[in-house]
Amino acid sequence: MSTAPLDYEKQGSEQAMFLLCSICQTLVGVCYITENISVGSLNATLLDKFENLQASVNISPKKLSNMEKLERWGDLWSQVRIVKDNLG
Question: Does residue 88 lie in a domain region?
Fold first, then answer.
């Protein structure tokens, strides 16, 4: 566990912000934030009881249009609030 600020980067369509541990560069989560929506998802494998979660759904985001990605994120991700002072 680290208390260091998170790093972030954008990939692919550059719509979502990927949150990374600044020490080991492990993907912690991902979020999409605009004036109208603020959603995100955690890297569930980092949770203590990961094995108790429902199976994840795999999909290739490269096969989705930018609009399809936004719709999917809005449907599947949870509401989030990111405090940018905590990002490196």
Answer: no
Residue 5 banded pLDDT, cuts 50, 70, 90: confident
β-bridge pairing 27-33 and 17-21: antiparallel
Instruction: Report the alpha-carbon distance of residue 27 to residue 49 in Å, rounded.
Output: 18
Q: Considering the domain boundaries, does residue 34 fall inside one?
A: yes
Residue 51 lies in a domain: yes
Q: Which amino acid type is present at position 20? A: L
Does the residue 1 lie in any domain?
no
Q: Which domain holds residue 41?
A: 6-83
- Dihedral sign, Cα of residue 82, residue 1, residue 88, residue 74: negative
pLDDT exceeds cutoff 90 at 54: no
Question: What is the pLDDT at residue 84?
Answer: 63
C-alpha angle with apex 33: 62 to 37, nearest 5 degrees? 100
Number of domains in the chain: 1
